[in-house]
Amino acid sequence: MTAPRTVLLTGAAGGLGTLMRELLPAYGYELRCLDVRPVEGEPDAVVADLSDRRALREAVRGVDAILHLAAISLEASFEKILRANIEGTYHLYEAAREEGVKRVVFASSNHAVGFTPRPPGEPPIAPGALIPVDTPRRPDTYYGLSKCFGEDLAQLYWDQHGIETVSVRIGSCFRRPSTVRMLSVWMSPEDGARLFHAALTAGDVGHTVVYGSSANTRIWWDLGSARALGYEPRDDSERFAAELIAEQGELDEGNPDHRCLGGHFVTRPPIWPH
Ligand code: NAI
Ligand code: 15L
User: Fold this and answer.
1) Residue 15, CB half-sphere, CA atoms under 13 Å: how many?
2) Which of 73, 132, 152, 194 has the CA that lies 20 to 30 A from 114?
3) Domain 6-266 has CATH 3.40.50.720
4) What is the predicted pLDDT for the residue at 3?
5) pTM of this structure
6) Which of 46, 50, 67, 69 to mutate for ligand 1's pocket (most ligand atoms within 8 Å of CB)?
């Protein structure tokens, strides 16, 4: 496919959306922003809910690709998750179909596989023991379940309508990791931009699922499918390890919050505040 230039960025007012508004223009993208909240510094942003089909159609009209970040990004009641993440993602794919947009990058999450036990043993984990991308899905929350739905929806729209998607199971994308678990799942914002750029431009992706993290020394999962898109991570959370471990201690197999990829989402998920 031709490299996309104009990209609709949903969830542009959020944490990751803000980071990508800073980083992605350097790759040559022109971003059209959408969020249910006003987007600071973006007076032309579309302020609309994902349930507003008319606004979505206008927003996707003429774009080359969509980077779909808008969502309730933590746990919430099933009804709220249903409306924003499940129905909202469906409405966006319908708008893409109606307007002929052929590439979506979907912000999935590690919480789609959050109940998967982390690989045993001391880091670094041997390559053959890393969690593969085709591990059975084990969502840890309704939130994680909505990401499983998004991945399946992406597969359906590829098979039925020829819309290509890269579903990125993002670990933790923040400026720096703040927990010992995040040393394993952290994706630096700069690597996030590299991965989204690869996902937007790689040819013939059909529907591809990848994990989204940096090349962390303590990584738990296999980045093979991300690298196959041309993603070359440059960061490693290890530079934060000594400080975080001194503060919080090593991960403890006896602690249920430490046993699974999803961390404390499996026992006491953080609740969406709105
Ligand atoms: P965030 O909560 O900071 O941003 C999400 C944005 O989506 C918010 O600005 C919110 O207003 C918007 N939004 C929510 N419901 C909406 C609706 N119905 N219509 C329109 N806009 C709506 O979340 P963050 O951290 O920026 O995450 C972005 C995406 O990446 C989310 O889909 C999240 O699930 C996913 N993700 C993020 C991770 C991270 O480490 N930041 C990890 C794994 C996945
Ligand atoms: C997510 O999916 C959340 O959106 C984000 O806020 C983090 O909690 C992240 O996962 C994580 O697992 O650290």
Assistant:
1) 12
2) 194
3) yes
4) 78
5) 0.98
6) 69
